Amino acid sequence: MEFHPGRMLGIVLGLVILASIFLLPFGTTNTQTLYGSAGPLISNLGGVQASGTATATFDYILVIAFVLLIIAGLVGLFPLGTGVLGIVGMAMITVAPYAVFPNGPVKLDPGTGFYVIWAASVLSLGASFWHGKRKEAVAGVNVNVSQTMTTGATSQLDVKCPKCGNMNPSGALTCSKCGSDLPKTM
């Protein structure tokens, strides 16, 4: 695994997402962090289901988005995963109030944490494509060159094939023309 600049930026942005979830206010009127909003719901999922209130669907969406954002922050080593999970989680939080309650009791109230997590998620997705300058691998190349010099006369080192009469270089085991075995020379 290579630590290119995009991977390092992904780690930083994953930490930014985690810090924003636990430290920055997620809304403007409700200054709780995302953890402050989703934490009580997670610890009381049975109560949310039993309540049967109209906001139960939104509460479940908030919990799922919270879990996705936590995972997005933890997988910062993989900026593509951080970006995709972060964008999906934030899209759920952004769209849910309008999809579940078009004119209802839950309205989107974005605060600092909301915008920071959106920005970190989008930047992380972009960072996944930043690989920096690639080092070109230098491959070692071995070249063996052999040179044969021929003259009009045959050398004493050449071997004549007993089957086809072709002249073969000294040390050859088989004839280069017909493939038959050559006599051993000394």
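Above is the first protein from milestone M3; the second protein from the same milestone is given next.
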Amino acid sequence: MIMERGVAGVSTRDLAQRVGVSEALIFHYFKSKAGLLEAAALSRETLLSSLLEVLEKPASNNLAATLQSLTEAASKRLRPGTPGWAFCSIMLSRDPRTQDFRETGLSVLTNARSRFADWLEDSGRLRTDGFAAACSFFEGVLFLVATLPSEAQAWDESAPEAFAGLALRWCQIHLGDA
């Protein structure tokens, strides 16, 4: 529904009717429509959930393989029509009706970026600062989402190579032994 009409075009009443629950139940669990967006961004179907899952474990000796795995997940989980695509579209939007969602999304992204930076620093394998490395990863992903085709078939043809290139360039810049 959100993919069809955009976040601003869907009310919590619409969502409640679609899934067969009361609107009060949505507000009980999520407090706001922005809270619902945050929960969706962290669901198991998003890139952020993949990243947070990686961060639960100590950094492996092979950070390049970890980054390759994350960029492969990005290629799949940010595909047009997915919750990840919707989240990124909102984050890249300038629509004033989605300002509260962008603020919530920015908070989610900032937290994930900080955790990723700390995790990278703890690896002891970076040639650059962990914060700079984390920022460049997030910025690279958002750049690709903003510039790759928005049709699913065209995405499938170009995204895997583009995200693999992001992983390769990231490793060349940030890993001391790459």
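Note on the second protein: Residues 17 and 132 are 44 Å apart (CA to CA).
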